[in-house]
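Request: Give me one sample?
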Amino acid sequence: MKFLLQSSLQASIIFLCGFLASHSVFAGCQAPNADVISNNPDSVYTVNNDSTVIDNNTGLMWQQCSLGLSGSACEIGSITTFTWNQALAAANSNTASGYSDWRLPNKNELASLVDYSCRFRPINDTVFPASTASAYWSSTPYAGNDEIIWISDYSNGGSMNAANGTKNRAGILAVRLVRGLE
C-alpha cells in the first residue's frame, strides 16, 4: 500500500511539473521557481522578424541577441565581451535591424528583463535565446564612483546592489542593446 501511494504521489508531481512548465506562468524558464509567478512571460514581449523584441510593459525595443550572436535563435557566433568603454563605443556604432540609436540600457532598464520566477539564468530565454553570459553592462555609473558601473548579473538572480551588482569599468562583460520607440 505504501509503495502504491508513493508511486501515485510521484506520478502526480511529475504531471504537475510538466503542466506548470508548459504554461505561460513559467514561460522561458529553464528552472522555474514554483513559488513565484513570472513577471516576464512570453506575452509581455513582441518578437519582431528583424531580430528585435519590444517589451510591451516598458515600451523599449531590445536586440534579441547579445552582441556577437545572430540568427533566429541567436545560434550563430559567440557572445562578445567588452570593457565598459568598449561597450559604449559598440552601442554608438551599432546599426542592427536598420536602427542607429542603439545604446546601453540603464540599470533599471536592464533589471526589467530579470524574471524572478526563474532560478537559473533569470531571463526569458524563449524571447532572448542563448543568453548564456552571466553579467551584462548597464550605462549607469555607481553614485560617488564613476569607475564602478551597475550591471545585471543573471547568474545570481539579476542582482542590482552595490555588493554584487557592480563592476569596475575595466572588467569584461556581455552587452545587450536597447532603444526607445519613436
User: Anything to note?
Assistant: The mean pLDDT is 77. The longest strand covers residues 145-153.
